[in-house]
Amino acid sequence: MRTIRNSASPRTVTIIALTSLTALTVSGCNAVSAGDGGDDYDETAVISDAVDKDTVLRIGDPRTQVALEASGLIDDLDFTPEWANIDGGPKTLEAFRADALDVGAVADIPPLFATWTNEPVRIVSARRTVDPLEHPTYELGVAPGADVRELADLKGKRIAYSPGQAQGALVLRVLEEAGLSQDDVDLVELQSTDDTFVNVIAKGEVDVAPLGIEQARSYLAKYGQDGASTIAPGVPDDPWHLYVPTTTLQDEKKTAALKQYVQVWNKLNLWINDHREEYADLYLVDHQGLSEEDARYVVDRQGDFTVPENWDGLISEHQATADLLSREQDHPEIEVDDLYDRRFEPEELAA
Predict the structure, then answer these.
(1) Are 273 and 304 in contact, with CB atoms under 8 Å apart?
(2) 347 in helix, strand or coil?
(3) Which stretches in the chain have pLDDT values below 70?
(4) What pLDDT score does 125 carry?
(5) Were both Cys, which of 72, 106, 132, 209 would link to 236 (CB 3.0–4.6 Å)?
(6) Which pTM value belongs to this model?
(7) Which of 126, 152, 127 is nearest to 140 (CA)?
(8) Could you give phi then psi for residue 230, rounded to 5 degrees?
(9) Straight-line distance from the first to the last Cα atom of the chain, in angstroms, rounded to the nearest whole number
(10) Helix orientation angle between 166-178 and 312-329, rounded to the nearest 10 degrees
(11) Residue 27 has what pLDDT?
């Protein structure tokens, strides 16, 4: 495995170094508990329905903030939300460690890496996508001339790989689906920040890289005439979670506010299904700077969100992912069920 040292900012390079350091710290251990690292709380305690309006919940989820305001559902929050322009696994975990955030929204990998690096966290809500194979979160961007038309063609190729992020886990899932091992490809390690993956494909430094929907569309628009292409990953990559440091759950008032936020967040996901164009305009166009055409493309590609009837299947899939990362990245084993605070499970259906 190689690591690209590119012209990224010092902050990006620092994150890469920290990821490597924490991987070295936890490697060699046999197992890790979701409770390791302290900050215990009573997971059997009944969560109050009474929400204190003066309770502040610091939330890192810009797209939810915009959608809540557009839908009017923000008025259903009886506590005081304090919004932070923070998203993505590394930034959210950094904010947890700095005690700057109470709840974040991430894919399925950040809670695992938080646990492996001794930051006690819990998942309190989960969202899925209807027909996830038809609506992947990521596509595999293929460099011009790389000749990758199906997953089997990945053999021998240079693949951008970010081990501490959802994109890195996706690469391992894709290899498993294709019947390939890490030895069959050249994994080029770097963090996926901003347009890093698009840039390394365009420069010919890798042959393949996982790209988000917006990135994939931009990549094809810029380099499609040169032979750039994308292929579907062929594996589901849709789980999305609300997760929190356990310090949030030690505070009874914050926990009550979080219970209400879970209910409203799930209502919001269903609202987005019925108001795609409005969501596209307010978040993707006004907030993210996409054109109207690109914004419509993105919301159509993302499909409809759904609320799981229960967490059993979700946890089983999450466990399989954790086991894959444990094997392939030499991490301790995790009992994923311990990461889910199932007191919040019925609050999703209540939405």
Answers:
(1) yes
(2) helix
(3) 1-39
(4) 97
(5) 132
(6) 0.85
(7) 152
(8) -135, 155
(9) 45
(10) 90
(11) 40
Where exactly does CATH 3.40.190.10 map onto the chain? 56-133+238-344, 138-231
Cα distance between residue 319 and residue 315, in whole Å: 6
Residue 5: how many CA atoms within 13 Å on its side-chain side?
3
Q: Residue 140: beta bridge partners?
A: 210, 231
| Beta strand spans in the chain (E) | 2-3, 31-32, 56-60, 80-84, 103-106, 121-129, 138-142, 158-161, 186-189, 208-212, 229-231, 240-245, 305-306, 333-334
Dump pLDDT digits (tens) for 265-285: 999 999 999 999 999 998 889
Q: Which residues, 6+ apart, have CB-to-CB distance to 188 below 8 Å?
A: 1, 2, 3, 4, 158, 159, 160, 161, 200, 205, 206
Which two tokens mark 62? 């810009």
Largest interatomic CA distance in the chain: 60
Query: Residue 191 corresponds to which tokens in the numbers above?
Result: 């963090």
* Separation CA 79–CA 73 (nearest Å): 13
CA distance 280 to 273: 11
| CATH number given to 138-231 | 3.40.190.10
Q: What pLDDT, on the 0 to 100 scale, is given for residue 40?
A: 79
Q: Which SS3 state, helix, strand or coil, does residue 259 take?
A: helix
User: Who contacts 230 (Cβ-Cβ below 8 Å, separation ≥6)?
Assistant: 139, 140, 141, 142, 211, 216, 219, 220
Torsion of CA 242, 246, 250, 251, to 10 degrees: -40
Second-level CATH architecture of 56-133+238-344: 3-Layer(aba) Sandwich (3.40)
